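TA notes, week 10

Several of you asked for a full example with nothing omitted. So below is the full record: structure tokens for the whole chain, then the designed sequence directly under it. When grading your own attempts, check the secondary structure regions first.
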């Protein structure tokens, strides 16, 4: 995982907390068997890989009935849009049924370059407006 400047770390962690309260609000009435874990600022749920390593994606949604990973989401900032992180995305995309990538507004071209060979279900562009995050689902064509 790349180190990010403090200003970006604040945005990163605020967005993760916001996503847990809105988009990934599990368990809920409709899905009482799903649970959302976040790994920032503290690690809550690691995922064991076939290489015998633990990875800690930003957001992990687990089906409690069988402990299966349903969804992984990663929140990136400007400084973490790079090849090293793209390798991590590639790994995460094989560890769950769905993988979502959140990236800063205006970086679609960079995302297109980095994600050519990665199975990502959802690309979501974000920006902060008057203290609230705005999300826009993008269709990235390679």
């Amino acid at each position: 995982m790349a180190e990010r400047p403090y200003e970006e770390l604040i945005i990163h962690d605020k967005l993760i907390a916001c996503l847990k309260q809105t988009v990934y609000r599990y368990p809920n009435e409709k899905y009482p068997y799903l649970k959302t874990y976040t790994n920032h600022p503290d690690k809550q749920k690691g995922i064991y890989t076939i290489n015998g390593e633990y990875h800690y994606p930003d957001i992990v949604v687990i089906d409690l009935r069988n402990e299966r990973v349903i969804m992984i989401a990663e929140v990136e900032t400007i400084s973490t849009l790079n090849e090293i992180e793209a390798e991590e995305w590639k790994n995460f995309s094989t560890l769950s049924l769905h993988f979502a990538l959140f990236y800063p507004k205006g970086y679609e071209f960079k995302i297109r370059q980095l994600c050519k060979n990665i199975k990502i279900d959802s690309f979501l562009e974000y920006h902060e407006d008057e203290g609230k995050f705005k999300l826009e689902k993008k269709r990235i064509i390679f």
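The chain has one domain: 6-138. Use that as a sanity check on your answer.
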